[in-house]
């Protein structure tokens, strides 16, 4: 009887001791936990800089923070930038030398966004922001979309039967653009359009069309970027009566 009582006393004491020990430490563990947030997508313009956003939910920088930015590519993961508070290490990944900057002013408010400079089409893809402290780790991903637009020009190629041949050109689009010709009379044009991609993955378009004699007024070549929902165009003015020599003289002057 005595020994049973003693055992009960002892076990309730250890429960009390456990609770007394755990509460403050549980608090410590909870205060170290955090989430990391980003935007699902961001759009970068070729040749410009883009901020890949990442924010720590607590609005502070965790102790001994380790920050990694990685790009997730189908079969592997590529280091974009790494930071370690303890050693002060702040280095871009091998393929990102001179192209990434951590804006450390924001660290004190938990802003661990990364600036990627001089965006290229090859940069499009999924980036992961991984934040670690001694006790905790969290990550968030963002998809970088890349866009580029360029100026458009129309050239007069010369007379063609009862009409005239025009060419529309533009170089430096991303993603692949849509090109169409617009005439005032809504003539049913049959352009021949060719799209090519260069080694930097930028698209160029060339479109030839024959404009028939009865067409007058403005003729436009319109090129659209589906990602930015913007367009660029070039307009040429055809003279009233379609007498080729005068027409060409005006056109080429
Ligand atoms: C975080 O820092 C980036 C880069 O300076 C900035 O563009 C962004 O607005 C900041 N985000 C917040 C929520 O302040
Ligand atoms: C357009 O015309 C030019 C000049 O005749 C020619 O070199 C080019 O190949 C043509 N392009 C297409 C897409 O037909």
TrEMBL record:
<dbReference type="GO" id="GO:1903037">
    <property type="term" value="P:regulation of leukocyte cell-cell adhesion"/>
</dbReference>
<dbReference type="InterPro" id="IPR013106">
    <property type="entry name" value="Ig_V-set"/>
</dbReference>
<dbReference type="Pfam" id="PF22705">
    <property type="entry name" value="C2-set_3"/>
</dbReference>
<dbReference type="Pfam" id="PF07686">
    <property type="entry name" value="V-set"/>
</dbReference>
<dbReference type="GO" id="GO:0005102">
    <property type="term" value="F:signaling receptor binding"/>
</dbReference>
<dbReference type="GO" id="GO:0050863">
    <property type="term" value="P:regulation of T cell activation"/>
</dbReference>
<dbReference type="GO" id="GO:0009897">
    <property type="term" value="C:external side of plasma membrane"/>
</dbReference>
<keyword id="KW-0812">Transmembrane</keyword>
<keyword id="KW-0393">Immunoglobulin domain</keyword>
<dbReference type="GO" id="GO:0001817">
    <property type="term" value="P:regulation of cytokine production"/>
</dbReference>
<keyword id="KW-1133">Transmembrane helix</keyword>
<keyword id="KW-0325">Glycoprotein</keyword>
<dbReference type="GO" id="GO:0042110">
    <property type="term" value="P:T cell activation"/>
</dbReference>
<dbReference type="InterPro" id="IPR003599">
    <property type="entry name" value="Ig_sub"/>
</dbReference>
<dbReference type="InterPro" id="IPR013783">
    <property type="entry name" value="Ig-like_fold"/>
</dbReference>
<comment type="similarity">
    <text>Belongs to the SKINT family.</text>
</comment>
<keyword id="KW-1015">Disulfide bond</keyword>
<dbReference type="GO" id="GO:0050852">
    <property type="term" value="P:T cell receptor signaling pathway"/>
</dbReference>
<dbReference type="InterPro" id="IPR053896">
    <property type="entry name" value="BTN3A2-like_Ig-C"/>
</dbReference>
<protein>
    <recommendedName>
        <fullName>Ig-like domain-containing protein</fullName>
    </recommendedName>
</protein>
<feature type="domain" description="Ig-like">
    <location>
        <begin position="24"/>
        <end position="147"/>
    </location>
</feature>
<feature type="transmembrane region" description="Helical">
    <location>
        <begin position="6"/>
        <end position="30"/>
    </location>
</feature>
<feature type="domain" description="Ig-like">
    <location>
        <begin position="160"/>
        <end position="236"/>
    </location>
</feature>
<keyword id="KW-0732">Signal</keyword>
<dbReference type="InterPro" id="IPR007110">
    <property type="entry name" value="Ig-like_dom"/>
</dbReference>
<dbReference type="InterPro" id="IPR050504">
    <property type="entry name" value="IgSF_BTN/MOG"/>
</dbReference>
<keyword id="KW-0472">Membrane</keyword>
<dbReference type="InterPro" id="IPR036179">
    <property type="entry name" value="Ig-like_dom_sf"/>
</dbReference>
């Amino acid at each position: 009887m005595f020994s049973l009582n003693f055992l009960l006393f002892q076990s309730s004491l250890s429960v009390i001791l456990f609770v007394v020990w755990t509460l403050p430490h549980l608090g410590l563990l909870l205060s170290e936990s955090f989430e990391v947030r980003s935007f699902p997508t961001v759009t970068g313009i070729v040749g410009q800089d883009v901020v890949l956003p990442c924010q720590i939910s607590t609005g502070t920088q965790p102790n001994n923070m380790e920050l990694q930015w990685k790009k997730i590519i189908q079969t592997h993961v590529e280091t974009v930038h790494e930071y370690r508070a303890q050693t002060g290490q702040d280095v871009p990944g091998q393929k990102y030398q001179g192209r990434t900057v951590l804006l450390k002013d924001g660290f004190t408010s938990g802003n661990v966004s990364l600036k990627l400079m001089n965006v290229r089409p090859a940069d499009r893809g999924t980036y992961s922001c991984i934040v670690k402290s001694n006790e905790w780790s969290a990550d968030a991903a963002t998809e970088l979309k890349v866009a580029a637009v360029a100026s458009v020009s129309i050239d007069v190629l010369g007379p063609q039967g009862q009409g005239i041949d025009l060419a529309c050109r533009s170089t430096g689009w991303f993603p692949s653009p849509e090109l169409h010709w617009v005439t005032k009379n809504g003539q049913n044009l049959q352009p021949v359009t060719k799209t090519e991609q260069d080694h930097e993955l930028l698209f160029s378009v060339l479109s030839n069309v024959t404009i028939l004699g009865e067409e007058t007024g403005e003729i436009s070549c319109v090129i659209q970027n589906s990602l930015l929902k913007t367009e660029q165009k070039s307009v040429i003015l055809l003279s009233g009566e379609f007498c080729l020599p005068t027409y060409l003289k005006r056109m080429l002057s």
